[in-house]
């Protein structure tokens, strides 16, 4: 809980700093994003308290309904009900509230896989009864999310499912085979589909300065921010790139603003804080009282770890630029709510474990 609150409070400060000028430009006030994000932090605290108090074992009954609901929501995004922003259709608008089904899909996938593999621990050893059904689930989620298009969320959801299968005992040879198929698919796009959208997305990050005003724009501005920060940063609130150079700096590229304002040292401390969260979450998973709790905790930790790695990779132009938020830090109510609720579930699992765990 301590590490979660530290990340959330730090995120609130950085969202305000990163969005300051963008908020003035868009809404005429510097505080619009701060107030909205603050509201979601309060709601998230309620979700975390609920997650910590509600017995995690009761989620077993919700695994299939939540999975089906998340798939339905992903399908609805692709209908006229979906809201398109910046060329991507990832949202459903219900009055004043916007729902991002891709974020719900992460938690739904974790819950389903934890239930599926805990019901029969031998399923993971069977191709027909365990591996293929979960590959099918990953394929459905990945396919629907890529159609939005949202490559990073698709990678996250599929990565969570495969990693949870490994935790449950999946043999590495299956992962290597799947990785080979994925690499073959990427190579086929690079070699034979050079005029396609996906070719541009998959190769633009290799040299963003080759097209600094179009495909490489975000990556270039992000790298300039990180480079300007140096070792100790230019100072909190003194970023230059957030002055309408880096698009929506409070969202997916907030790490670049953190690097510019707080420098390499600030980024390193943030990464250490994430590592501490992941370490304690892993401790909760290892000491969980049952298989379901172990897999559920593992999935939550993997979700955070994968998103942190992907966000850092995108911001540093180490992978194609695509929307992936920084857990607990980036602006966005859907993601923050999911992460804070998930942290509460971790706390609840720890409460049912050995008394000497020290995680409460």
Automatic annotation (TrEMBL):
Catalytic activity: [GlcNAc-(1->4)-Mur2Ac(oyl-L-Ala-gamma-D-Glu-L-Lys-D-Ala-D-Ala)](n)-di-trans,octa-cis-undecaprenyl diphosphate + beta-D-GlcNAc-(1->4)-Mur2Ac(oyl-L-Ala-gamma-D-Glu-L-Lys-D-Ala-D-Ala)-di-trans,octa-cis-undecaprenyl diphosphate = [GlcNAc-(1->4)-Mur2Ac(oyl-L-Ala-gamma-D-Glu-L-Lys-D-Ala-D-Ala)](n+1)-di-trans,octa-cis-undecaprenyl diphosphate + di-trans,octa-cis-undecaprenyl diphosphate + H(+)
Class of enzymatic activity (EC top level): transferase
Source taxon at top rank: Bacteria
Pfam families reported in the protein's UniProt record: FTSW_RODA_SPOVE
Pathway note: Cell wall biogenesis; peptidoglycan biosynthesis
Record GO terms (molecular function): lipid-linked peptidoglycan transporter activity; peptidoglycan glycosyltransferase activity
EC number: 2.4.99.28
InterPro entries: FtsW, FtsW/RodA
Presence of keyword Cell membrane: yes
Keyword Cell division on entry: yes
Bilayer topology: Multi-pass membrane protein
Transmembrane segments: 33-55, 62-82, 94-118, 130-147, 153-170, 175-193, 253-279, 291-316, 328-347
Primary localisation category: membrane
Gene Ontology biological process: cell division; cell wall organization; peptidoglycan biosynthetic process; regulation of cell shape
Compartments, as annotated in UniProt: Cell membrane
GO cellular component: cell division site; plasma membrane
Entry keyword set: Cell cycle, Cell division, Cell membrane, Cell shape, Cell wall biogenesis/degradation, Glycosyltransferase, Membrane, Peptidoglycan synthesis, Transferase, Transmembrane, Transmembrane helix
Function: Peptidoglycan polymerase that is essential for cell division.
Family statement: Belongs to the SEDS family. FtsW subfamily.
Protein name: Probable peptidoglycan glycosyltransferase FtsW
Species: Lentihominibacter hominis
């Amino acid at each position: 809980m301590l590490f979660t609150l530290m990340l959330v409070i730090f995120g609130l400060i950085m969202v305000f700093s990163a969005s300051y000028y963008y908020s003035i430009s868009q809404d005429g006030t510097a505080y619009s994003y701060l107030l909205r994000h603050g509201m979601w932090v309060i709601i998230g605290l309620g979700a975390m308290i609920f997650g910590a108090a509600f017995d995690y074992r009761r989620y077993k009954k919700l695994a299939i309904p939540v999975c089906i609901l998340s798939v339905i929501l992903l399908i609805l995004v692709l209908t006229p009900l979906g809201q398109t922003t910046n060329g991507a259709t990832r949202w459903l608008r219900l009055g004043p509230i916007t729902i991002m089904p891709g974020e719900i899909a992460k938690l739904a996938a974790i819950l389903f896989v934890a239930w599926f593999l805990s019901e029969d621990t031998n399923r993971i050893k069977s191709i027909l009864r365990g591996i293929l059904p979960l590959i099918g689930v990953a394929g459905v989620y990945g396919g629907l999310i890529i159609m939005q298009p949202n490559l990073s969320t698709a990678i996250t959801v599929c990565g969570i499912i495969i990693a949870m299968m490994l935790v449950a005992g999946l043999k590495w040879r299956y992962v290597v085979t799947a990785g080979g198929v994925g690499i073959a698919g990427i190579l086929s796009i690079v070699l034979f589909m050079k005029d396609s959208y996906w070719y541009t997305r998959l190769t633009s990050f290799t040299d963003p300065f080759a097209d600094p005003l179009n495909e490489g724009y975000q990556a270039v501005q992000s790298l300039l921010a990180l480079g300007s920060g140096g070792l100790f940063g230019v100072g909190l609130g003194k970023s230059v790139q957030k002055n309408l150079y880096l698009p929506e700096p409070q969202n997916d590229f907030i790490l670049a603003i953190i690097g510019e304002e707080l420098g390499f040292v600030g980024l390193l401390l943030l990464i250490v804080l994430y590592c501490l969260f992941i370490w304690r979450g892993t401790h909760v998973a290892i000491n969980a009282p049952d298989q379901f709790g172990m897999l559920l905790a593992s999935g939550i930790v993997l979700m955070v770890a994968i998103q942190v790695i992907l966000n850092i990779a995108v911001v540093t132009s180490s992978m194609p630029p695509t929307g992936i938020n920084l857990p607990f830090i980036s602006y966005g109510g859907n993601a923050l709510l999911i992460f804070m609720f998930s942290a509460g579930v971790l706390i609840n699992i720890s409460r049912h474990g050995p008394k000497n765990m020290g995680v409460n």
